[in-house]
What we know:
Helices cover 37% and strands 11% of the residues. The protein is α+β, with helices and mostly antiparallel strands. β15 and β16 form a beta hairpin. α15 packs antiparallel against α16. The longest helix is centred in the middle third of the chain and has 34 residues, at 425-458. The two termini are 69 Å apart.
Amino acid sequence: MIPKIRRGSRTHGLLAYLFGPGKRDEHTDPHLVGSWDGFAPDPGRDSSADADPKATMTRLAAALDLRVKQAGTAAPAQHVWHCSVRTDPGDRTLTDAEWNTVARHLVRAVNLVPEGDPDGCRWVAVRHADDHIHILATMVRGDLRRPRMNYDFKKAQAECRRIEQEMGLRRLKPGDGTAAANPTSAERFKAERTGRAETPRETLREAVRQVVAGAASEAEFFNRLREAGLRVKLRHAPSGDVLGYNVALPGDRNRNSEPVWFAGSTLAPDLSLPRIRRRLTDGPLDDAPPRPGTSRTDRSAPARTRRDAAGTAERATALLDEDGDEAAAQLVGAGELLDALAQTSPAATRAELRDAARSFERATRSHIRAENADIRALRSAARGIVHAGTALGRGEDGSATAMVLSTLVLLTLAAARWHSARGHAQQAAASRQAAEHLRAAYRQSAATPLRTMCDRAQALPEPERRRHEATIRAALGEPDPAPATRPSPPGGSTPWPPLSPKPRKQATTPRRSSKKPSTAASWRAPATRTQCWSGASAASPTCPPSPAAPASRRPAPSRPRRHPPARPTAPQPRHPPALPPTPTARHLDADRHPKSLDTHSHQVLRKNPHRTNGEPVPRNTEDPTIPAAQPTAGDPLLRLEYETAPPSGPETTRGLQCPHTLDLRGMPVYCTKCRAQRDWLLTNYRQHVWIHCRCGHKWLEPEITRADFDAMITDPNWTHYQTVRQSEIALGFDGS
């Protein structure tokens, strides 16, 4: 509910307009919905036989002006108080009784008719549309004194907020008196007549704000105003000092063919000359504007300045998260940065950035001021963007624009949170609206750079892509795709993970190895004769083995191929690189294993019935067996059930101590947190095999299956514990 208050001196003239057809015949059924005593004559509802609306209107005007005439010269010259009250188009239609209540609340709130005062001013409320009423009052009391009408506009606004809550209407956000003046009705009508998309006041406000964003001194400010095509008039004191300035649009004239001037303070409170001088005093770090040269780096000046601005905006965002009032100055600098981007961005994003700058302009003003805050970095960034010129929408300029826009989205959201914490409803809403415009501009500017990055990422080697993916997941706090999220085997309800992200198929006849490892630390899975499969693997998480869809086989290679582990591991260099610890970063040496990207070759790690020295391994009685009654028990696909069936029995949780270096497929394993390479603890909990480091870090190792774990138990170089708890206590992994 929006009140609009004006004052005049012609009671009869205002009544003639309210009960007339209107300027465009928009008045329908004008009538009174309330009056000072409830018995005022109604020109719109006079049902007498000799009814004359004009005569009734004259009687009503005389009744309203009675106390004014009695007061004589003591009456104010502008004695007519006129307030129009309008509801939102989405609100329900109020009845005449409800509008009467609204009118009585307002005249009481502005002190025209104090509560319980019989000498209040005379007033009427006229309704000639569904969505608004007009309150007309004469400002002379019954005791012929003037009413105290101080701050009537603020009081009416506050009363409208209470009425909205009581009647269930759309609630507007209360202001704090720092908003810029809205265009008047005369300015809007003139803009429509002259074919302007906006009023001169709005055009001048935006132009002056953009000029301030690139100025470093008062002289440069006025010069840039003239360069922008505006007419400038300075106001001087008798001493010759400049007191203020006025601006006008070329071609905007009044009825006397004179320019229509607007003072800076009438455009916006922070565009007055004293406020601008204060900002210029805290000017940019460098007073000389950057001049483009002919070097190669100068050709990307817009991109360079935008990258610098992104870093500056990021630091300002961090300041907005603090509790102090110094952030108020950072908002002013952020507004200048948006104004600079709005005038130098590509055409594709310029409209959205202009809307974002206009919206955020409201968020830069509040009653909280930081006198000693330093915003020179933001002002220098804005000045650099202005002097670097218009950026292109592609190449380096496009990616740099997307970078600074993404940072500004976070800055505007931080500004909204800062204003909300201090009860600045209008400023918080303006910040959120600016963030929406910035998001739209970011989507347009980031489309081409992201598409280019995607194409480059597809061309990266798979190990490097995995490394980047692990880093991004760690930064976002997302878990690595765990096997526990995969479906359970057919016929079973217990959730289980496959033993390898990339299961591999092994032939039924393993090949014995003639080499005996020197130590158990260098243990590796026995070499097997493999077959390559085209299409989905039999143990694929998304495609379980099915007789109805057999996999097509390719001829086996002439010699066994070495396959990389499904979970990337990397040899430990003599001096480990100082990489940030990430929970999933275990890197694959693609240079030593160039064939690691063969996605058609899969192998399932199987328990070898023979030890690496050629001797049979005693069978573990706890291992599940394949039912012999099934006719297809010897099928290699069915043998995968050994790997997929959850283990059972008393030894489903076991531990192994490995004091030496652990070697998987010829690649040493190292801890991604402390870079240790030895003194491991391996635990087998149900179908999982975990590797523990003494630093407390542990991870799931799909390269070691339950079958491999059973083979390790028989090696004398490993220390076997019956439970995980026993192994942790024995080795001190429980923290003791």
